[in-house]
Write a structure and sequence with these properties.
- Strand 9 and strand 10 form a beta hairpin.
- Helix 7 runs antiparallel to helix 11, helix 15 runs antiparallel to helix 16 and helix 21 packs across helix 23.
- The protein is of the alpha/beta class.
- The strands form two sheets. Strands 6-7-8-3-9-10 form a six-stranded mixed beta sheet, with helices on both faces. A four-stranded antiparallel beta sheet has the order 2-1-4-5, with helices on one face.
- It is built from 28 helices and ten strands.
């Protein structure tokens, strides 16, 4: 159907709203009154055949039909729309149940603390409900009958002190266990995100993932901290109800008559507040994505002068948050006052009816005072339950989003019984790599590699050359198992990479990526990233081999210098050399240099090439490159075209024999010249380097 949203899109972008989709699809081609309807209700539409997450459970079939027609341009029968709505509601309930199951499993891991908390809560309830009884006896026996008033006062004081101490213990346990739960879930999310395949990260927004590990878990923590407190309040509610019934069942009926309406109000509140708070959390995650992109890309934003554009995007997201937050606040503001009002109505009835019974002599003053105190003790538990319902709906929405991440299975994982690579010895050289009839495509209907075959001998260096989209970087990703091949296989020293533990595979394949990423840490820790306990001598040796030792010593604190986020305090060439040193410390069987010089100024490229030449010596190396000087470092050059090997040879031979090779290098040379034109490097000069790389370059 035209306008159909790709399957699974809602999961990868939970912040997607019907209103945005509608504006994108139908602007300028629907009647004005229809657009008005869509602006009013479009963000809440439910259309199962579009795969869009519902924002509201309170839409009739006609509203859904209008939304679908506006978005897709295709009429939808109201009955079909109602069916889609029902299916979406059922799916939403199932997702909430899975979220609650996740929380329950986590809480069961701390059963002892929960049992202790319940025990303290029960004791607290006993001490709390004892005070009105003691007050009653103090009035009836200590005042009216001239009894031992001081003794009753002491008992009341003891009960009050015990209540205070138990309250402190109950709250401490509640906060401790809630923080423990939050920390445990955060660690699990982080660990699971690390295990998820690269394709998942390619399609996910960083801000969305960050919000699940931060703001969503804060909602869960706020709910968990209230669980033991609410259980105590429920126990107090039950105890007070029983005591009131035993004291005077007629008066108890009068006092408790308004309370069943709380259940009705709670059910209506829950059905309305859940989609509202889910919308708030989705919009907060979307805002986090905008902020993360703006901060990460601040140099691009400033370089292009688009600060106002980014500000407008942020303001729009902030306005969306304000809109959905006010809607949620409106729902809460209509519910919570009812929780306060209903017990007050009971109190008024008790004062009238109970006062009449005291006057008639059917009830003592102490009983009436105790009855009223007990009745006031219902106010906070009922209000707490109302708050708990609201917090529970927020937590439910958060748990759905957390469960979405934790329930995602990695598409690439280690085998149950992994094989080992042959041991590395001084007598035998390792690092043989074979690509055997490899087929692969990021999309089902579009293959990048079509029967790619290549054998690399141990210690040999091979350069992969090709036009953009020819599959050079894809080969690197397949070797590392960022993705798995569709057909064929890849082996290292005769072992299929799919039979290797992922950790062992990636320890044996070192990569220097085109987009160098350094961590906000010291130079030393960045170089020793793969082996944090590496000795300083090993770190310095790697830096020397990478040609980084001299400039590191010139930094303010040498190897202990903090290089800032992404290492932007260093130049592009310096970052690249640190990255090469990082790969050297890992001491891999196979080294991959994925366009490691593309981001470096051509005038400084020779410094990186010198380091690369040293590192490549005697080690199996795959070089993805397009600059002639870097290509010439390899023992053999493989030209990729159309997902297959088009030519193999050395640089000078291919320049003479392969027209396609010349075309590819010329195209890359033009691109480099255009990007470096501001630095005075001309196209003709760059083209001149294609045929004859100079000397050591």
């Amino acid at each position: 159907m035209e306008g159909r949203r790709p399957q699974g899109c809602a999961r990868s972008n939970p912040g997607f709203s019907g209103r945005r989709l509608g504006r994108a699809r139908v602007a300028g081609r629907v009647p004005r009154e229809d657009r008005q309807v869509f602006r009013q209700r479009g963000e809440h539409f439910i259309a199962g055949n579009l795969g869009v997450r519902p924002r509201s459970r309170h839409l009739d079939g006609s509203r859904v039909a209008v939304a679908v027609r506006l978005v897709t341009g295709t009429p939808l029968d109201p009955d079909a729309a109602a069916a889609a709505k029902g299916e979406a509601e059922e799916q939403a309930r199932a997702q909430r149940n899975l979220g609650w199951h996740l929380l329950w499993k986590t809480l069961l891991e701390q059963k002892r603390a929960l049992i202790l908390g319940v025990a303290i809560g029960v004791t607290w309830t006993a001490a709390k409900v004892a005070v009105p009884q003691l007050t009653k006896h103090a009035i009836d026996r200590g005042i009216e009958q001239n009894g031992p008033l001081l003794a009753w006062s002491v008992f009341i004081a003891i009960a009050g002190v015990a209540t205070g101490l138990l309250t402190a213990g109950r709250r401490y346990l509640a906060f401790r266990e809630s923080r423990w739960t939050e920390t445990l879930l955060r660690e699990r999310i982080y660990a699971h995100i690390q295990r998820l395949h690269v394709a998942y990260h390619d399609k996910s927004q960083t801000g969305q993932l960050m919000s699940r590990a931060s703001s969503d878990l804060q909602q869960v923590q706020q709910f968990v901290v209230m669980i033991p407190i609410t259980l105590s309040n429920v126990a107090q509610l039950v105890a007070v109800t029983v005591i009131l019934s035993l004291t005077d069942w007629r008066l108890a009926i009068v006092a408790l008559a308004p309370l069943p309406f709380i259940n009705v109000a709670s059910r209506r509140f829950s059905s309305r507040i859940h989609p509202a708070v889910l919308a708030v959390q989705n919009e907060q995650a979307q805002l986090a994505s905008v902020v993360e992109e703006s901060v990460s890309g601040v140099r691009v934003v400033k370089g292009l002068g688009t600060e106002q554009v980014q500000f407008d995007k942020l303001r729009k997201e902030a306005d969306d948050i304000q809109r959905v937050s006010l809607k949620a606040a409106g729902i809460r503001s209509r519910f919570l006052p009812a929780i306060d009002l209903l017990p007050s109505l009971g109190l008024i009835a008790v004062l009238g009816y109970g006062g009449h019974r005291v006057i008639n002599g059917d009830m003592s003053i102490g009983d009436l005072v105790a009855f009223n105190v007990y009745l006031t003790m219902l106010v906070w538990p009922l209000r707490n339950i109302g708050m708990m319902v609201a917090l529970g709906q927020r937590a439910a929405a958060a748990l759905v989003r957390v469960h979405e991440v934790l329930s995602t299975e990695p598409a690439v994982k280690s085998p149950e019984k992994p094989r080992q690579l042959p041991p590395r010895t001084s007598a035998t050289q390792t690092g043989a790599v074979r690509f055997e009839s490899v087929h692969f495509g990021y999309d089902v209907d579009r293959e990048i590699l079509r029967g790619f075959d290549l054998a690399i001998a141990p210690g040999e260096s091979v350069a992969l050359v090709g036009a953009t989209g020819s599959g050079k970087s894809t080969i690197v990703r397949l070797l590392l198992r960022f993705y798995d091949v569709t057909n064929g296989r890849i082996t290292i020293d005769g072992v299929d990479v799919r039979r290797l533990d992922l950790g062992e595979l990636r320890r044996n394949v070192g990569v220097v990526f085109e987009d160098t990423f350094l961590f906000n840490d010291s130079v030393r820790n960045n170089i020793a990233f793969s082996k944090p306990d590496a000795e300083q001598s090993i770190v310095e040796r790697a830096a020397r081999l990478a040609g980084a030792h001299d400039f590191i010593n010139q930094l303010p604190d040498g190897y202990d210098t903090q290089i800032g986020e992404r290492g932007y305090s260093l130049s592009g060439g310096q970052r690249q050399r640190v990255a090469i040193a990082r790969a050297i410390v890992a001491d891999p069987r196979v080294l991959v240099l994925d366009d490691a010089t593309s981001a470096v100024d051509p005038s400084k490229e020779h410094e990186i090439r010198d380091a690369m030449r040293t590192v490549m010596s005697g080690r199996t190396t795959i070089v993805v490159a397009h600059r002639p000087g870097t290509i010439a470092l390899a023992d053999r050059i493989v030209l990729l075209d159309g997902g297959v090997v088009a030519a193999v040879g050395q640089h000078r031979d291919l320049i003479e024999s392969s027209e396609r090779y010349r075309e590819v290098l010329a195209a890359w040379a033009v691109r480099d010249a255009e990007s470096d034109a501001a630095d005075g490097s001309g196209i003709a000069e760059t083209r001149g380097s294609i045929a004859a790389p100079t000397g050591g370059d």
